[in-house]
Amino acid sequence: MRSMGSLKQGVVSRRKLLVGLLLLFYFYGGVLLIMDCVVVVSGIGVNWGTQATHPLPPSTVVRMLKDNGIDRVKLFDADSKYLNALANSGIQVMVGIPNEMLSTLASSVQAAENWVAKNVSSHVSSNGVDIRYVAVGNEPFLPTFNGTFIGTTLPALQNIQAALIKAGLGTRIKVTVPLNADVYQSQSNLPSEGDLRTDIHDLMLQILKFLSDNGGPFTVNIYPFISLYKDPSFPIDFAFFDSNSSPINDNGRVYENVFDANYDTLVWALQKNGFGNLSIIVGEIGWPTDGDKNANLKFAQRFNQGFMSRVNAGKGTPMRSGAIDAYLFSLIDEDAKSIQPGNFERHWGLLYFDGQPKYQLSLGNGRNGLVAAKDVHYLAQKWCVMSPSASLADPQVAASVSYACGNADCTSLGYGTSCGNLDARGNISYAFNSYYQINNQLDSACRFPNLSAVTTTNPSTGDCLFRIMIKTDTTAGAGERRLSRSVGLLAYILTFVFIIM
Ligand SMILES: *[C@@H]1O[C@H](CO)[C@@H](O)[C@H](O)[C@H]1NC(C)=O
Ligand SMILES: *[C@@H]1O[C@H](CO)[C@@H](O)[C@H](O)[C@H]1NC(C)=O
Ligand SMILES: *[C@@H]1O[C@H](CO)[C@@H](O)[C@H](O)[C@H]1NC(C)=O
Ligand SMILES: *[C@@H]1O[C@H](CO)[C@@H](O)[C@H](O)[C@H]1NC(C)=O
Ligand SMILES: *[C@@H]1O[C@H](CO)[C@@H](O)[C@H](O)[C@H]1NC(C)=O
User: Fold this and answer.
1) Secretion signal: which residues (predicted)?
2) Nearest ligand, CA of residue 123?
3) Among 99, 146, 150, which is best to mutate for testing ligand 2, by the most ligand atoms less than 8 A from CB?
4) Looking at the domain covering 43-231+263-346, what would its CATH class be?
5) DSSP strands (E only) in 290-343
6) Mean per-residue pLDDT for 114-123?
7) How deeply is 258 buried, as exposed, middle or buried, from its count of CB atoms within 10 A (0-12, 13-18, 19+)?
8) What is the distance in A from the centroid of ligand 5 to the CA of 161?
9) What is the pLDDT of residue 368?
10) What pLDDT is recorded for position 129?
11) Which residue minimizes the CA distance to atom 3 of ligand 2?
12) 213 Cα–ligand 2 center, Å
């Protein structure tokens, strides 16, 4: 709605112009206003991560974004493969700088200028990519990083900001640092006791001042799912927006869900330190669908729909009444992500890896559910399973499964997961199939000694999906990978035979 004031001013100063011109101007202003309102109403972004063994082609993803009316996207780097696909799409983009680049960009103004020239300026000017933000680092102050990025994040932020200004992009593109919600805390469970984390208090103050001076937003990732995952006694209902659990009363402000309480803890922390007006972007919010007993379709649907409904209602929190600016995490599943945080890590997508929606979700932009990716090409309808003649007592079973899972993806097996109810043979088949599909159905990837066989009967049952991968356009690269993987399997088989003998 910002354009309203300036347009009114414009109209006043042009009073003496011809009536026709005035009318044209009003009309144009009206269109702008309507467009602005649409942006506010349907304003949800998504995170587009790309750590997958079989990623959809970037152009397929961009078309899917448009089909779903998603007009903002957040990337984790600035790979030209994705930016090229976003050219002239009308989609606003937040590009990212991986933590590993922070020290280079912190120590060299020239490196920052090169980064901006190559990864921002060229796309904005000649490629028509609507870049609006640069995210410098990603959750750089997580305790697991042992302070590695404490000294480099702010200098990198400063150098990138200076480089953007030098490139003439200082007003159009804002810098920010996506931070985990652990950079602030409350001594009690009351938001009003919120303050910055003590070990990084001074650094955070400098970052807040820098963002404030440069019009950059504070970007925070908020994960009620992780609260639940880490604390089994967490009141599960409080994680959702339609909660029935007893609310927290903070001096008259009532909190019915953990998101509001967490967001307002941040608002209080900002306010207490003199930056109560800093704008806030929720950089990541979402719920995974597999890999943990609380990660399932039902909970993910409940959480994301609850969140979207309030975003669309323009409803803020008790401390900040305005609309919430957010990016859902995430667009599609990524089967090559590290599972160090937990098996759920590969299942954050609103859509499966192949662009198929997982559940009914209305983003509130007139569409009733998510629209699937179009023109997706799959590998053949065949699966690798434990052969009917193989015995569970075969001494090679354990090592074979462990090899398959170590090199593929077994995060849908285990207590409370989508394939958690498979029997022992089903488990083994799932592991074999995952390995076979990730290796593009290579014959040699279904040669677990005397244990496996290829079938054309789909072994999937209920929610437990035995996947078939999609064809990717990187045939050459995949070929090399396939080769080294099958050499790996051969080496393993030989080693095993050797041990047996
Ligand atoms: C541009 O971004 C890519 C991907 O993040 C990175 O690999 C590359 O080094 C960047 N280019 C420059 C000149 O810094
Ligand atoms: C952080 O420190 C711990 C303990 O010293 C170590 O095990 C871990 O590998 C370190 N992590 C990183 C990212 O440096
Ligand atoms: C915050 O914004 C309000 C309204 O725009 C303004 O009146 C106030 O002075 C601002 N406070 C600070 C600390 O900038
Ligand atoms: C199937 O595999 C999972 C994960 O490895 C394990 O927890 C479960 O006990 C297995 N089930 C059977 C019946 O072997
Ligand atoms: C596979 O089974 C055959 C016949 O049962 C046996 O001779 C052979 O040693 C087995 N191979 C391995 C690798 O266990």
Assistant:
1) none
2) 1
3) 146
4) alpha beta
5) 325-328
6) 98
7) buried
8) 65
9) 84
10) 98
11) 146
12) 35
What the block records as the tokens of 383 is 């699966």
Through-space distance between the first and last CA atoms of the chain, rounded to whole angstroms: 76
Beta-bridge mates of residue 261: none
Residue 99 Cα to ligand 1 midpoint, Å, equals: 12
**226 is written with which tokens?**
């992780």
Please tell me the distance from the alpha carbon of residue 135 to that of residue 56, in angstroms, as a whole number.
24
Distances (CA, A) of 286 to 185, 205, 302, 331, 367: 21, 28, 11, 10, 20
**Is the preceding omega at residue 121 within 30 degrees of 0, hence cis?**
no
E strand map for 174-317: 174-176, 178-180, 184-186, 194-196, 218-221, 248-250, 253-255, 280-285
- What's residue 489's pLDDT? 53
Pocket of ligand 5 (CB under 6 A): 449-450, 497
Is residue 386 predicted with pLDDT exceeding 80? yes
CA 42, CA 80: separation in Å to the nearest integer? 27
Q: What is the pLDDT of residues 450-479, one digit of tens each?
A: 999 999 999 999 989 999 999 987 533 444
C-alpha to C-alpha distance for 150 and 260, rounded to whole angstroms: 28
- Answer whether 0.85 is exceeded by the pTM: yes
Distance CA 351, CA 364 (A): 17
Counting Cα atoms < 13 Å in the Cβ hemisphere of 133 gives 27
Across 413-429, b (16+ Cβ under 10 Å) vs e yields: bbeebbbeebeebbbbb
The vertex-297 CA angle with 292 and 298, nearest 5°, equals 105
Do 247 and 254 touch, CB atoms closer than 8 A? yes
